[in-house]
Amino acid sequence: MLASNNSFTDPPLENSNLVLGGKRLEELSSSLLDVPIPIIENVVSTISLGVPLDLEKIALNGRNIEYNPSRFGAAIMRIRNPRTTGLIFSSGKIVCAGAKSEESCRRASRKYARIVEKLGYQAKSVVFEIQNIVATCNVRFSINLGGISFTHLKFCTFEPEIFPGLHYRMLQPKVTIVIFPSGKLNITGAKNKEDIDTAFRHIYPILRKC
Amino acid sequence: MEKPNYQLYRNTTLGQALQKTLDDFISEQLIPESLSKKVMDSFDKSINRILPMKAKNKVNFRADKLRAYRYCDNVWTFIVEQVDLRDAVEGGTVARLKIVACDGQSTKGQLQGHS
User: What value of ipTM does the predicted structure carry?
Assistant: First the structure.
């Protein structure tokens, strides 16, 4: 049953990709050959419990927590799996950073919420939202940044005497890409993984041309 | 700035013995409770002053794993596992060690351990 279902849905999908045009096919085949794919390095999310928290109490009763209000207003908690850092604020908001995927970030946020609940708080609402995704990529050819900053003047800020990378502010999707002459890229500001992939698909031909 | 007098050394053998003696005195009504408090405060003050100067013996330890840590109210707490403790004379391994460390406001930190 399952197998027949797969064989029924899979080929048309592939076909529709092919039908989309020769250019698409070309891109697809080149991606199979040597176009790298961006790797997600960090996912930052927030979760709001909707109740005020006593951080002192949380820091004294929980484990793996640092709380130094004279230095930083939030309690810093770390968990081992997924290896992330959580910032717990007295407003009841928790920022989770350091996850390597959207899914693991979600799991980590849930864990932080559960830990805080176990320390004696009843969460009123749990609103999870991804704030930022950072990805890196190495296109493995050197890039002439001067050329890009000249041809894409409106989107670029490039001052080699201040910083060797070129900041490319893409509008659709709204991300910032830092491009280095070595061929390494940082893509940041995305809210989901698709933004990263679309942004890379947009920027890759531009880099190729220069 | 005045160095704070931590009460953490009350949990040492010396501190516990002193506390017990004072408690005995109170129960026999030889001294009032207020005096016992004063003596313990004086003990805190003295041991905080003396330990950094007089105690010379060192203990090295090396742990396999940091199980948990905490930093709150300027106190670090570590729970480490499989600790190899070693001083000049002898050594041994304990399964778990809790380390409580306060800011000594000098180059030497003040440490206390329970196994």
Answer: 0.71
